[in-house]
């Protein structure tokens, strides 16, 4: 498919591009690209896929039922928390790192994370550090803001994931003209997905530093998942295993709903537990993959991973992560690809790996303004940086909220609410068009508000909408 001449030309161009980048970044990208050239067809044989044995997906309640020892602080002192902090807030209309968006009571994602870990350290007199995996997009702004936490009882470390060049889809050559990340080069580079954590962690020296300090496990999660807090019962399960049967990798999974059909799932494949992503599924089986009945769980990306195991696998160069080919079209119309990997895909490389089926409350990502409305509302209470479902809510599930394009950007979203409505008894909310909400609005049951093009709907202060459809001329009809 690719001639030797093309490969030699590619290596010459890439070597030039990487002159000023670390040799380890270059070696990492060269290895990834070489594997990309060798891959032919789907990375899984569908006939070999089976459901994991029950003992490999433990119910959370079973782990919690074992209780906690009096000396749980000993286990905490062997843990570090890693937050994936490479993403920008552009999808929500914000500049800079997504972790610096205010999500609750003027607290940012990063504020809440620091408060959670500080509370742990104070409560148990422990020393759990926070580690941020930044990207070249977020590193500078994040480091500036870290000064505000220097008097908090939590040590904060940072390291950068790799910087790889985007590849022209046609020529398969890097599009970067120089090492810069501005001007004509602004779109030439990308961070290669969170699967890069293993190599970057080791390259930074932080992996060895934490091991030397007596840390044995990291708890890894996306910084925008507000449900991803340190769980003492899962930690205790890890630490209480015999040394020769120590679990090296736990993936938290939760029950799939129709909103999660594209999420990765755990399968048994060639006698190993493995993460199956939708990108790996042959086209003929995509509908089967999305089935809630066959694949009942999905990956929350809350992961507990052994530090010595990471070191062992990295030194042996035996962590084989499936390549995700992510096509992009740049502003100028150029079609490019970026090669990525996922952190959870490494599960197949670790010994005694398992999944834990956790409550849905541990998966509370804020990807859109609809998610933001939920976490800002009285559906949740905030305590020591952690959000929990209000005891006043009669149902354990969160409402289904769908806000239209007028609410996409955070600033526009905030301008449309004088304050956040009472949503304790809400089941479903759809809002479309030019709609604003006055103070002390209450939403119950199913509420649909649609302002047609050119119309505007102002929900008045103090309004209570229960099972209503509000149309463009503000007629209120029973639903």
UniProtKB/TrEMBL annotation:
Signal peptide extent: 1-16
Biological or metabolic pathway of the protein: Glycan biosynthesis; glycogen biosynthesis
Keyword terms: Nucleotidyltransferase, Signal, Transferase
Gene Ontology terms for molecular function: UTP:glucose-1-phosphate uridylyltransferase activity
Function, in words: UTP--glucose-1-phosphate uridylyltransferase catalyzing the conversion of glucose-1-phosphate into UDP-glucose, a crucial precursor for the production of glycogen.
EC assignment: 2.7.7.9
Catalysis: reaction(s): alpha-D-glucose 1-phosphate + UTP + H(+) = UDP-alpha-D-glucose + diphosphate
Transferase in keyword set: yes
Biological processes annotated in GO: UDP-alpha-D-glucose metabolic process
UniProt xrefs under Gene3D superfamilies: Hexapeptide repeat proteins (2.160.10.10), Spore Coat Polysaccharide Biosynthesis Protein SpsA, Chain A (3.90.550.10)
Binding positions for UTP per the UniProt entry: 98, 161, 193, 224, 367
InterPro entries, per database record: Nucleotide-diphossugar_trans, UDPGP_fam, UDPGP_trans
The family this protein is said to belong to: Belongs to the UDPGP type 1 family.
Protein name: UTP--glucose-1-phosphate uridylyltransferase
CDD domains linked to this entry: UGPase_euk (cd00897)
PANTHER family for this protein: PTHR43511
Subunit structure: Homooctamer.
Binding site for substrate: 194
Record carries keyword Signal: yes
Top-level division of the source organism's lineage: Eukaryota
